[in-house]
Glutathione S-transferase (Podila verticillata NRRL 6337), 242 residues
Amino acid sequence: MAHAYFNPDQTALFGEMVARKDTTFEVEYYGLHGLASPVRTILAACGAAFTSVVPEDWASAKAKSPFGVFPILTETAPDGKKIHIAETDAIVRYLGRKYGLLGRNVFEETVINTFASSNNHLLQRELAKWFTTKDPEARAVLKEKLFNESIKHWLEFHEKYLRDNGSNGHYVGSTMSIADVLTVNLINIVVGIYGGDVVTEAKTPALWKVKTTLEAIPSYAAWTQTESFKAISARNKEVLGF
């Protein structure tokens, strides 16, 4: 039998939930930013009511996840109806559909997904190597290699495209998309690893504009002042150094 999260009997319920604006959310993940960062960012920027949950019993929590990993998003309606979604990319795209972050038409959605894919590739295929390398000397060599062979080119390509779009803080048109969110998440990671002089208003003004535009959204800014966000940031710094 398929995992409960994949039961097609939920088809109508998913259609109902994605259209509702009165639901609340739980984001189940470690007490870090990590893979839950873009999920929490979207929820905060869109003014959704959500809580971050760190399981006390990891064995039980992993057992209910279809792949034994996190994050898991739970959306609950006032009448008690619930849906669960696993995997960051699936969660981000569901929330993108719910909150209108996938563009106005098929072309815009394709462009947004293209840049989202570019971001995910850099994080999951390249930067992941840095996170999993523990030897200090090997990590230092890898850090330089990743910048010269991957990050530098990502910065150049994305900066050029964003400038062509008017340096208005968005990848498509003049509204937020999942590409914007994923880029801000990636900028924060790159700056955490390489320092604050890699992405700056002077060096990469178009990328910087994406970051500052999102961070200026009142509901997002308010969330970054909460005890929950501060606790996650403190734990992130303790574990990862940034």
Summary: The chain has a mean pLDDT of 96. Strands lie at 24-28, 49-53, 72-76, 82-86. The first strand starts at residue 24 and ends at 28. Residues 4-99 form a domain with the Glutaredoxin fold (CATH 3.40.30.10).
